[in-house]
Amino acid sequence: MSDNNEAPPPIPPDDDEDEFGVIKKFCYVNRKAPYGTVYALESLEMVLIAAAFDQDVSVVFMDDGVYQIKSDQAPEAAGMKNFSKTYRALEGYDVEKLYVSKESMEERGLTTDDFLVDVEVLDAAALSALLAEQEVVITS
Amino acid sequence: MAYEINGETYEADEEGYITDIGSWSEGLAGLIAEDEKIEMTDEHWEVVNFLREYYDEYQIAPAVRVLTKAVGKKFGKEKGNNKYLYSLFPYGPAKQACKIAGLPKPTGCI
Amino acid sequence: MSKLHTVNKSPFDRNSFDTCLTHAEDGSAVLLIEDGVYAAVAGGQTAARITEASARLKVYVLGPDLAARGMADDRVCAGVSVVDYGGFVDLAAEHDAVHSWL
What we know:
By secondary structure, chain B is mainly alpha-helical. Chain B has five helices and two strands. Chain B is 49% helix and 7% strand.
């Protein structure tokens, strides 16, 4: 509960670009299908937190991770939360660098039309180059 | 903790966020607002309803910065700023408005 | 003895799908559930193995688990039958034994 005996906190400025000072290149690499384990959901939460702290965030979907952004997911009937909708919120968090492994996508019979967000498709060499320039990489 | 309306109990966590988003109603929102010492006006409802729509679409409660930007986009620049939103919800629009809207605490909220 | 095999892991993540197909006796049934349903999607690397398997096994996939993952029924390989929860129960009842590949 808010402690209303004290005066409300000061209103933060709208322009908080410099609020957190150090900005690092964070890259979250997703390799697991969305519902079999909790990794996909946990990774997405980490992405949102890093974005809320104004970090420079990239998200990679490779191996079974490409299934995380498959369109038309409907897990509600199976009693699970449809967090695939949350990937569409990333744009509002200024997380716009989303990449998909070309090989992983093709091995699974998927095309870019299958994804619920706009992604850039990278082959293995391009993906390696992307990973090489990151400062913090978390693969799950 | 818990809220009570007409003998009906609604579970909430220790900070007052209801645990079952499905149990939300305008009546419950009014009660939570009362607890937060907030008198709900049309402007308050506008933000609360916006948050519920946002949650329905994205399945998360937005961070303050994201909420501010999205409110500005939908209702205009004069509402899409901290000054306006904090005037409605002095202890933080994300925290208080989300609580009243029956949403979980925003991800990335410190 | 008739047997129903169930596979619930992605064929790209674990080899339980492959191992199941290797050991499933001719004429038995294989039901893909949970992340196992990805094996049934056409156009990918598992399609050839599914086609090969469906010649000697009865291959099924659980529709609700496909739908949960955004895969429409028409994405499923030829030779694979989509079943609902009732169909799952029927399969379990029809066979003498169930072998779960977890």
